[in-house]
Design a protein that fits this description.
544 residues; alpha/beta; SH3 type barrels; Rossmann fold; 3 domains; six-stranded mixed barrel; 12 helices; flat; BAH_dom
Length: 544
């Protein structure tokens, strides 16, 4: 190269070093995963070599589950059928919790009422399950029960003994240490429950109150669900006063529909000119949008069903249903039309909302759920768009004033990077990013520029968690650490190299150490107790 330059009688010179000092990035070494005791129980077998063995345990290890063994109780005589009975020497009343003999195992239930069936005294029970019967398996608290949406009848002679079961509400003490004190003082013969478990969905929710009394005995939650499902499948209508076949309203699936309501219809209820091209792609189709004009009964019969109650609806076009196609930027915008079609009530999915606006704001579109916006009408014949009338625009302005302002959640972003996830949450009006944790100093500085008001911790996740577990209020740099109750939304995406199918070296030691950060992230949730928790990862994460 120098010879070629010499032909032009020029000489290459070495560039002078820049005055600004550039720090060379060095990849940090992996650190052992710091975990809370309950997270350690779950992930100890998966990441046994990556766990921090020097971490002191502040709680007792969870013992193996043991079902209570009933003591021998003598039988007794029956008392009042609907109030209380005597069995095995114990008086059992409505509202008591009992252990019953069911097939090869024992089950816990709450007595809601007593009655006789074929001259046999029977108890109606609201069932509960043990942690090992849920997705928690053996890591659940051995003294915790879960209410399930199931009930049944059991002969009184199958009742083994009475149990002490308390219903606790941890919603007020979730982000404090009050719940730990309650669990530590729990008697060995005392159980508690706070959640309702849905087996089909592996989902927990707050258990309903069981103190509401009925005519006979106590309130049975499962029976109430069955009654609501039966009532939801029936159609109830209210006729117009002048005696036509039109109705003022119709109630179906716990929802009342009236003329003027906007509804979502089953995909394929309407046929559009552009539908043939979309069907060839094989993609799932969205629901159709319509407005109810009239409610009619087209069948002369006393029995009303969702198929013979017809709705006259005006069709609304989505952008992809018009000649614009999918190139239109806003997919939750609809266009009105003068086309009216009859559809059965069974085609209705649920109610929706349509606001008539003059201009579309991206922030408004992303923050509202189950809501569409309309500013123009569309004619499929002429392919022309027309502005909506003025009185509809005034109605939209009144609706916008009624929308309450949502209080943003105090957010901690873990594995924050440059702040892409936090930026998305803030654009939706959901979060207020107060803290961020990122190990890479370059990415952390970029996050600080994107969110100047936030506190950015340039530290390892395990070191950050260990400082909080040790009770420190500030880190080594003097930054205040978030404490339990400060964080309302905990979001983050742990490294996915060890889970991704695209990584050929996902079984290596480096990938396994990165995988163990999932346990550290879950431990942060256990320590900080946020109201909402978001974990983002690749698809294969759920199948490892």
């Amino acid at each position: 190269m120098q010879k070629l330059v010499n032909l032009s009688r020029a000489r290459l010179k070495k560039p002078k070093p820049e005055l600004q000092s550039l720090q060379r990035y060095t990849r940090p070494k992996p650190s052992p995963a710091t975990c809370t005791p309950i997270v350690r129980e779950v992930f100890d077998m998966m990441f046994s070599q990556e766990m921090d063995r020097d971490l002191r345990q502040t709680e007792q290890d969870i013992q193996n589950y043991k079902e209570p063994c009933p003591n021998g109780c003598s039988g007794g005589k029956d008392a009042s059928v609907f109030n209380s009975i005597w069995t095995r020497g114990e008086k059992i009343e409505c509202g008591d919790y009992v252990l019953t003999e069911c097939c090869e195992s024992s089950r816990v239930g709450c007595v809601t009422r007593f009655f006789t069936k074929d001259s046999v005294l029977v108890a109606h029970l609201q069932w509960f399950c043990f942690p090992k019967e849920t997705i928690l398996g053996e890591v659940g608290n051995p003294y915790e029960l879960f209410m399930i949406p199931s009930c049944g009848d059991v002969n009184v002679d199958k009742i083994l003994q009475k149990m002490t079961v308390l219903q606790l509400d941890f919603r007020e003490t979730w982000n404090s240490s009050a719940d730990a004190a309650v669990l530590e003082n729990t008697d060995t013969n005392c159980y508690f429950y706070s959640k309702l478990y849905h087996k089909d969905e592996n989902r927990f929710e707050n258990a309903p109150s069981t103190t509401t009394c009925e005519v006979h005995g106590r309130f049975c939650y499962s029976c109430k669900l069955k009654r609501e499902q039966q009532q939801g499948n029936t159609v109830e209508v209210r006729k117009v006063l002048h005696g036509t076949n039109a109705y003022v309203a119709v109630r179906w699936h716990k929802e009342t529909y009236r003329p003027g309501d906007f509804v979502l219809l089953e995909p394929g209820t309407f046929h559009f000119p552009q539908q043939k091209q979309r069907n060839q792609s094989g993609a799932e189709q969205p629901c159709n949008v319509a407005a109810i004009k009239n409610i009619l009964n087209c069948v002369k019969s006393e029995y009303l069903s969702p198929s013979n109650v017809m709705l006259e609806v005006s069709r609304y076009y989505r952008p992809e249903d018009t000649h614009l196609g999918t190139a239109y930027p806003h997919l939750n915008v609809v266009f009105a039309s003068d086309e009216v079609y009859p559809v059965p009530l069974s085609a209705v999915v649920r109610k929706t909302k349509v606001d008539f606006v003059t201009s579309l704001r991206t922030s408004t579109i992303w923050t509202l759920h189950n809501k569409f916006f309309c500013s123009q009408s569309y004619c499929a014949t002429t392919r022309a768009f027309t502005d909506i009338r003025h009185h509809k625009l005034q109605h939209s302005q009144e609706a916008e004033e009624q929308c309450p302002e949502v209080q943003r959640l105090r957010t901690l972003d873990v594995f924050a990077g440059c702040g892409g996830l936090s930026l998305g949450f803030e654009m939706t009006g959901l979060s207020d990013t107060r803290w961020a944790l990122e190990q890479c100093s370059a990415a952390a500085r970029a996050f600080q520029l994107n969110f100047p008001h936030s506190t950015v911790f340039i530290d390892d996740c395990n070191t950050f968690l260990k400082d909080i577990l040790d009770g420190k209020k500030t880190n080594s740099k003097g930054q205040r650490l978030p404490q339990r109750g400060d964080v309302e939304l905990l979001c983050g995406g742990p490294p996915c190299q060890g889970f991704s199918m695209l990584n050929r070296f996902r079984e290596g030691q480096s990938s396994r150490f990165k995988n163990s950060l999932v346990a550290s992230y879950l431990s942060l949730c256990d320590v900080l107790r946020p109201r909402f928790f978001v974990l983002e990862n690749v698809r294969n994460f759920a199948f490892v």
